[in-house]
């Protein structure tokens, strides 16, 4: 390896991280629960939905690191430059869903913790323990702790999921998966929209990514090029898309046609999923599946626990016109505790009905996706954005296709 190649590898190493954190945030309820449910209920017939959702959301999520690196600002600050209308659309949507999303991912993680440890605490108690662990990890190093933890978790997740998929394909041929019901009825369309709403992640995840990109710069004192940052994004995004297809395949190969209906509760479904895998693949697979499932959900909970305080602090900074202090009422550490407590309170009040919150949040994510997609596109095409870093023509065309796709299915859902 010559000196130039070594330097390139070294600089990319500093850029690597935010894309994997985005992938960890994406691979959670949308994969473990929704993708597996898609396979369990419809076989392989919804592969197209997973592929198209990943394809047409790609530009709007890619604009997150593109904007942050090119302007040295978060997308939230960019929304304010674009206009108050763009900024407040993002704020209202974030405030309207953050507690439900935090509560939903935490309780699924808690149910898997019960399965993994055998400790029969209540799900509310386990949720509190999970959030406390996440807070301790983030308090110790904030971004650096998140970055290190996610890299380890994503390796474990990828290896364990790949092992499960290979075993499933060796036992069942895809040609045997026939007789799937039609998706084109009221219940099917509702599920389709919920599936694509978080596939692979809501479009407002682009704002999260822009903040993680800026934090990575602070951590390493290295400002990556747009090209380096987008390579990091592509690794995480494509990896998350492939894992979604893996989970759909597991649902189709193992659960479809088994005669066992998946549970309506996300937490119960996660437990049932682990049990059904071991019954079908053999007891040897228990640890592969439980590690795969738990690491999936824990990584999502950890990243969401970090994302919302970070986003909330940035919103306040933009409103105040200056950066929020590291201590005080609006500090990261204060906000992470407040948001976690309110999420636990929501769990206490709603009990097992959190799946309603998940379905509501995922559907809302999809219905607002065309608006957020349009805002993100306008942001990277605005006059204040550097011309040399604007999306190439193929990405602009894909953006227009994405807005049409997202708008079309949103209107279809409203029609049904």
Radius of gyration: 21 Å
Number of domains: 1
Mean pLDDT: 84
Which CATH architecture?
Up-down Bundle
β-strand amount: under 5%
**How many E strands?**
0
Helix content: over 70%
Describe the protein:
The chain is 79% helix and 0% strand. It contains 16 helices and no strands. Helix 6 runs antiparallel to helix 13. The radius of gyration is 21 Å and the shape is globular.
Short description:
79% of the residues lie in helices and 0% in strands. The protein has 16 helices and no strands.
Give the helix/strand layout:
Layout: H1 3-15, H2 18-26, H3 29-42, H4 47-71, H5 75-82, H6 84-117, H7 123-141, H8 143-171, H9 186-197, H10 205-220, H11 226-255, H12 266-281, H13 286-320, H14 332-350, H15 354-380, H16 393-415
Helix pairs in contact: 2-8, 2-10, 2-11, 2-13, 3-9, 3-11, 4-10, 4-11, 4-15, 4-16, 5-6, 5-15, 6-7, 6-12, 6-13, 6-14, 6-15, 7-8, 7-13, 7-14, 8-11, 8-13, 9-15, 9-16, 12-13, 13-14, 15-16
Task: Fill in the keyword field for this structure.
single chain; 416 residues; mainly alpha; Amino acid/polyamine transporter I; 79% helix; globular; disordered N terminus
């Amino acid at each position: 390896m010559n000196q130039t190649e070594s330097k390139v590898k070294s600089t990319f190493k500093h850029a690597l991280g935010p894309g994997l954190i985005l992938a960890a945030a994406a691979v959670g309820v949308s994969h473990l629960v929704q993708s597996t449910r898609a396979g369990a209920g419809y076989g392989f017939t919804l592969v197209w939905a997973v592929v198209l959702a990943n394809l047409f959301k790609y530009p709007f999520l890619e604009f997150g690191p593109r904007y942050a690196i090119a302007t040295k600002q978060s997308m939230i600050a960019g929304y304010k430059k674009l206009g108050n209308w763009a900024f407040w659309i993002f704020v209202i949507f974030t405030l309207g869903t953050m507690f439900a999303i935090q509560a939903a991912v935490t309780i699924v993680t808690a149910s898997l913790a019960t399965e993994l440890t055998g400790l029969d605490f209540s799900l509310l108690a386990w949720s509190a323990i999970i959030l406390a662990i996440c807070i301790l990890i983030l308090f110790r190093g904030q971004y650096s702790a998140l970055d290190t933890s996610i890299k380890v978790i994503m390796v474990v997740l990828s290896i364990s999921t790949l092992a499960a998929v290979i075993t499933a394909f060796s036992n069942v041929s895809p040609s045997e998966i026939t007789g799937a019901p039609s998706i084109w009825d009221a219940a099917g369309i509702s599920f389709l929209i919920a599936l694509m709403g978080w596939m692979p992640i809501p479009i407002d995840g682009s704002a999260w990514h822009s903040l993680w990109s800026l934090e990575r710069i602070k951590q390493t004192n290295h400002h990556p090029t747009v090209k380096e940052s987008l390579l990091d994004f592509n690794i995480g995004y494509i990896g998350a898309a492939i894992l979604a297809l893996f989970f759909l395949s597991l649902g189709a190969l193992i659960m479809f046609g088994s005669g066992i209906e998946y549970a309506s509760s996300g937490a119960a479904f996660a437990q049932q999923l682990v049990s059904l895998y071991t019954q079908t693949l053999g007891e040897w697979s228990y640890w592969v599946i439980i590690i795969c499932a738990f690491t999936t959900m824990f990584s999502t909970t950890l990243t969401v626990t970090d994302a919302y305080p970070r986003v909330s602090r940035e919103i306040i900074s933009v409103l105040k016109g200056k950066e929020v202090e590291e201590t005080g009422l609006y500090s990261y550490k204060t906000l992470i505790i407040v948001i976690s407590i309110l999420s636990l309170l929501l769990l206490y009040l709603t009990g097992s009905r959190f799946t309603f919150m998940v379905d509501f949040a995922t559907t809302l994510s999809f219905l607002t996706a065309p608006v957020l997609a349009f805002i993100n596109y306008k942001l990277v095409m605005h006059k204040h954005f550097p011309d040399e870093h604007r999306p190439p023509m193929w990405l602009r065309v894909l953006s227009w296709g994405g807005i049409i796709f997202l708008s079309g299915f949103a209107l279809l859902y409203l029609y049904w």
